[in-house]
């Protein structure tokens, strides 16, 4: 029996995910959950990539084994919390939502109530395993720098006081805590939240966000130091054509998490 999943959100990540798993025998997209007004576009995607999926505005009450969130911060409270309370496990991409005070505790309580688990995916960043392991021995500093081409920062506070279309040199658009980065840049700083939740926490992880006309990739850098030693990581991610804010690796990370639910051997 294939694992029946409900996909929450059907944008750049959701569509690419459905494309990648459409021939997986162990997985069945049973529902696609989108807000009112987005059903027609989702129906079109379902027609091409998930013909058995119902397009809905909420996770169905029956017959769902797992929810996969790829929608945005608001979807955690709206769809993930209720699913967990009903005992449905969840895979979450919008990790930055956990920067809202109280939400991590609410997620834990909902999962406990439902006797299930919520998995925050690594998404566009690597070395989350190393960072979370290093935390066991004690971490001293964790620094994260996110660098993207100017167009990836459109529609964010990065536009205040600067014209991203004519940016000639790199501009630091944010310096501060991972909590503030995730709150102010909900579509661009999920990685900041992920790095901090695996490491030193949302308030002690220092974050720099940079708009850089000299790069074409989404560049993520982590420097961590602690009892384990130190590491420096640089990721140069290809953005998705459908959304320059989002790296293709985020899709692959979600697909990996999904496939791991049914694979007999997992790495
Ligand atoms: N962990 C990571 O490394 C990353 C996480 N993300 C997260 O993934 C989210 C989705 O990314 P993309 O697919 O590139 O965005 P997108 O804008 O292309 O697609 C978002 C989709 O979600 C739907 N949606 C929006 N609000 C919703 C709600 N409350 N309930 C259900 N559906 C809703 C939209 O209609 C659309 O179909 C981002 O907003 C971000 O929070 C994105 C990139 C990296
Ligand atoms: O996909 C990426 O490169 C990272 C991203 O948008 C985020 O951290 O929210």
From TrEMBL:
Name a GO molecular-function annotation: NADP binding
EC number(s) recorded for this UniProt protein:
1.4.1.21
Q: In which pathway does it act?
A: Cofactor biosynthesis; NAD(+) biosynthesis; iminoaspartate from L-aspartate (dehydrogenase route): step 1/1
Kindly identify the residues recorded as the active site: 220
Domain named Aspartate/homoserine dehydrogenase NAD-binding is located at 9-118
Chain residues that bind NAD(+): 124, 190
Q: Name one GO biological process term.
A: NAD+ biosynthetic process
**Known catalysed reaction(s)?**
L-aspartate + NAD(+) + H2O = oxaloacetate + NH4(+) + NADH + H(+); L-aspartate + NADP(+) + H2O = oxaloacetate + NH4(+) + NADPH + H(+)
Keywords (A to Z) from UniProt: NAD, NADP, Oxidoreductase, Pyridine nucleotide biosynthesis
Q: Where is the Aspartate dehydrogenase domain?
A: 169-255
Which InterPro entries does this one have?
Answer: Asp/hSer_DH_NAD-bd, Asp_DH, Asp_DH_prok, L-Asp_DH, NAD(P)-bd_dom_sf
According to the lineage, what is the superkingdom?
Answer: Bacteria
Q: What does this protein do?
A: Specifically catalyzes the NAD or NADP-dependent dehydrogenation of L-aspartate to iminoaspartate.
The record's family statement is:
Belongs to the L-aspartate dehydrogenase family.
The record makes one more remark, namely: The iminoaspartate product is unstable in aqueous solution and can decompose to oxaloacetate and ammonia.
Give the protein's recorded name: L-aspartate dehydrogenase
